[in-house]
Design goal:
Strands 2, 3, 4, 5, 6 and 7 form a six-stranded antiparallel beta sheet that branches. A three-stranded antiparallel beta sheet has the order 1-9-8, with no helix packed on it. It has 177 residues and is an alpha+beta fold. It has a domain of 118 residues. The model has no long low-confidence stretch (mean pLDDT 92). Strand 4 and strand 5 form a beta hairpin.
């Protein structure tokens, strides 16, 4: 994805949050919404990775922000580096496709403490395209009425992944919901 394509996606998402009836924002928030906060495009975090399939202990229950649990399957694990630091993450399989939740060292200051998400794309050659520039906050970051998976401990990393969405900020966040 090019920086221009990413900017177009971000503008479209901001417009959805501001105007769409299915926005996760309350109407009062939409009135004051000025846009989501994003890291600049980082080409070093647009990756094609070889993931090693998980053979044992695949099934995992993941708690949600509302106290429910959801069942996922550990699909594969991959390694990469960020700023020279090694990182390993697990990709999960769900009824909705591949799912990669993670919490990085930017939480809770710059990034959402319950985790951010990205959907890895399985490529025809068996590798995954993981573009951290497309990382997004779960809807519960904007509205407590949503139930979102909380990142499992195996995907909590000690490095700061400076890509994608940041914590929400601005006067619209503080509006009484």
């Amino acid at each position: 994805m090019t920086p221009a394509e990413l900017e177009a996606i971000r503008r479209e998402k901001d417009q959805f949050f501001k105007q769409h009836p299915q926005s996760p924002l309350e109407p009062e928030q939409q009135d004051r919404f000025t846009g989501l906060s994003y890291y600049p495009y980082n080409p070093d975090l647009d990756l094609v990775v070889t993931a090693v399939p998980v053979k044992d202990d695949r099934r995992i229950q993941i708690e949600t922000t509302t106290g429910d649990t959801r069942i996922y399957e550990r699909y594969a694990r991959f390694d990469f580096t960020v700023d020279g630091q090694p990182v390993a993450l697990t990709i999960y399989d769900s009824p909705h496709g591949y799912f990669l939740p993670f919490v990085d060292a930017g939480a809770p200051g710059e990034t959402y403490p319950a985790g951010r998400y990205v959907e890895p794309e399985l490529l025809p050659d068996g590798r995954f395209h993981v573009d951290f520039n497309q990382v997004y906050n779960p809807t519960c970051a904007y509205n407590e009425g949503w139930s979102c998976p909380i990142t499992p401990s195996e995907n909590r990393v000690a490095v700061h992944i400076r890509a994608g969405e940041k914590n929400p900020e601005g006067a619209w966040v503080e509006v009484e919901k």
